[in-house]
Design brief:
Layout: E1 3-8, E2 12-16, E3 21-26, E4 29-35, E5 41-49, E6 53-58, E7 61-65, H1 71-78, E8 87-94, E9 99-104, E10 108-112, E11 118-122, E12 127-130, E13 133-140, E14 145-158, E15 163-176, E16 181-185, E17 191-196, E18 201-205, E19 212-217, E20 222-224, E21 227-229, E22 236-239, E23 249-254, E24 259-263
Parallel strand pairs: 3-7, 3-9, 4-8, 4-10, 9-11, 10-12, 11-13, 12-14, 13-14, 14-15, 15-16, 15-17, 16-18, 17-23, 18-24, 19-23, 20-24
Antiparallel strand pairs: 1-6, 2-5, 5-8, 6-7, 19-22, 20-21
């Protein structure tokens, strides 16, 4: 297996040939992985503080970032209590078919436009994926994660970080302790399974009658399609959807958080608050990220989402 490596100490651009997988690890700063039309991969390091950044090509896999032992989970475990000054701002342009793994400690991350498997993980950073197709996996401790305009399956796990997802979601599995949850599916999913302890859960689907419900809300408020349900044994609510296809099911288990299920309106999409510090580099030209907007906050440019949170629901984000 052919290997090639670079140790980067300052601003630098590195072009490599076609790859099938990108592993990107960042402690602090920002990393944006965006689909481009070129067959190869371009890595642009805009700034570095602290230790040098490593770029390593191993066969058809490209690694960018820091490389502690223990693999993917080892990276998060090793830097969970990170207090150093290592920081970098990085852009990576990839073809749509490249699978992406992205991890940060306190850094922000973006994955945009891919049509392959995506895994994102953070300890306390803010991470977003947008306009992705396929399977997305999310792990966060306290960082906020947004999955926007996704088509495909979704798995999300959080301790206290808020989780938001929208798009044509076909299958969703989500676990959270106290991080609030907002799911807005533009199509009727095959299944949604949400487990929460003290988090508020808001789910919006276009046709609530096309799903079977198995909802449990022990001490919180339970609202389904505008109707509040009180006094059910153990906070349980079950109902077969009149138009539900076999196996199409929404299941939510919550201990102390509120649970709200809304009927979607495609003419009035939910708008999400943009995580602070997210986006493309401030000095990027307005056409550097075609299809994903200019640097957010640029005068006269529509941001990927508007400020503020959902107009309805258990949590004001």
């Amino acid at each position: 297996m052919a290997t090639e490596s670079w140790t980067v100490t300052g601003p630098q651009t590195i072009d490599v040939g076609p790859v099938s997988r990108l592993d990107a690890n960042l402690l602090n700063g920002r990393i944006d992985v965006v689909v481009h039309d070129e067959p190869g991969v371009r890595v642009e390091i805009h700034s570095i503080e602290g230790r040098p950044l490593e770029v390593r090509l191993e066969g058809d896999r490209l690694r960018v970032g820091y490389s502690p032992t223990g693999g993917w989970q080892g990276f998060l475990d090793s830097f969970r209590n990170y207090r150093g000054k290592d920081r970098a701002d990085v852009y990576v342009g990839v073809p749509a078919h490249v699978a992406v793994k992205l991890a940060t400690v306190r850094g922000d991350g973006l994955v945009a436009g891919t049509h392959a498997k995506v895994s994102v993980a953070t300890v306390g950073g803010s991470v977003m994926t947008t306009q992705t197709t396929g399977a997305v996996r999310v792990d966060t401790v306290s960082g906020e994660v947004t999955v926007r305009d996704h088509v495909g399956t979704l798995v999300m796990d959080s301790v206290s970080g808020d989780l938001t997802a929208s798009g044509a979601l076909s299958d969703v599995k989500l676990n959270t302790v106290s991080g609030n949850v907002t799911l807005d599916s533009s199509s009727t999913p095959d299944s949604m399974n949400v487990n929460a302890v003290s988090a508020d859960v808001l789910v919006r689907v276009p046709e609530p009658d096309a799903l079977d419900y198995a909802l449990r809300c022990v001490s919180g408020r339970l609202v389904v399609d505008g109707v509040e349900h009180r006094g059910t044994p153990g906070g349980a609510y079950r109902q077969g959807g009149p138009a539900a296809a076999p196996g199409k099911r929404l299941q939510v288990n919550s201990v102390s958080g509120n649970v709200t299920v809304l009927r979607g309106d495609p003419e009035q999409p939910v708008t999400w608050g943009a995580p602070t510090g997210h986006g493309v580099p401030d000095d990027a030209p307005t056409d550097a990220y075609p299809g994903y907007g200019a640097p957010w906050g640029t005068a006269g440019v529509q941001a990927p989402w508007t400020a503020g949170g959902p107009a309805d629901g258990p949590a004001d984000r």
